[in-house]
Design brief:
This protein has 263 residues and is mainly alpha-helical. The chain has one domain. The relative contact order is 0.14.
Length: 263
């Protein structure tokens, strides 16, 4: 409860820090925040050009010559949110060590700033994707109302895992070097650029052990096929997400005072 009160007391600090981050990131950029949209869309374009000829014919239920690009954008939307929150939470305490030494504020505010910034980026990307979908003739349906569930699940999972590893990273800096490499493998183990049906049936259960598989497939169900996600695929990711967040808070409360000395 003390942490919740502290977060509420510093709510304006969190909001102003998110605004300051955006201003400083694009201070001398003529395109500003548009770069946050162009980077993932460029990634989609590259994958679409390279792989569409191989996989476009294997997307059942989509009658569009841009089927694979639509499929990619749906997966990238979910994965980019997870990767940004998870990746930035990993070094959030180490990167802000000097700030923590100079200012007295709850350390838990830093992951909230990261989460808020990532959410703004993801909303901008989502808006851009909807515009591209409209230009390609793929109009979304009321299935979009399921997106908040997937968004919250993604945030909890990314924040839980990122915060837990970020605390360990304060004491063992090798974590900050190893995890980004593992994150690249994680991306290819998630059905973002390929269809899950391409995985042999005997390995399908192994693929679903990856909590991001069910989440990304949920994004694809909503944005590509205009239908509600399979709730049975979200039970496992949500369970892992809640367990990870619980572990992260436990570690935070135990290591809160020691982190200041280690930094």
């Amino acid at each position: 409860m003390n942490q919740l009160r502290a977060i509420w007391a510093y709510r304006y600090f969190v909001i102003s820090s998110i605004k300051t981050e955006f201003r400083s990131r694009f201070a001398r950029s003529s395109l500003g925040g548009i770069w946050m949209i162009l980077h993932p869309l460029a990634q989609v374009a590259i994958y679409a050009l390279v792989l569409s000829a191989v996989l476009a014919a294997k997307l059942p239920g989509i009658n569009s010559q841009y089927a694979y690009a639509i499929y990619l954008m749906a997966g990238i939307l979910g994965w980019s949110l997870f990767a940004e929150v998870f990746g930035r939470s990993l070094g959030v305490f180490v990167d802000n060590g000097n700030l923590l030494k100079k200012m007295a504020f709850p350390k838990i505010a830093l992951p909230l700033i990261v989460t808020g910034s990532a959410l703004v980026n993801n909303f901008l990307l989502f808006g851009a994707i909807l515009i591209v979908f409209g230009l390609l003739g793929h109009l979304p349906s009321l299935a979009l109302l399921w997106l908040p569930l997937l968004l919250v699940t993604t945030l909890i999972l990314a924040l839980g895992l990122g915060l837990a590893l970020g605390i360990i990273n304060v004491f063992v800096r090798d974590i900050g070097q190893i995890v980004p490499i593992l994150l690249q493998f994680w991306f290819w183990l998630t059905p973002v650029v390929y269809v899950s049906s391409l995985i042999p049936e005997k390995y399908h259960s192994v693929m679903m052990l990856n909590p991001m598989s069910g989440i990304v497939m949920g994004y694809q169900s909503i944005l590509v096929y205009n239908k509600a996600p399979d709730m049975s695929m979200l039970i496992y990711p949500l369970t892992i997400a809640c367990a990870a967040l619980g572990l992260a808070f436990f570690m935070y409360f135990r290591a809160n005072e020691e982190m200041a000395d280690a930094l």
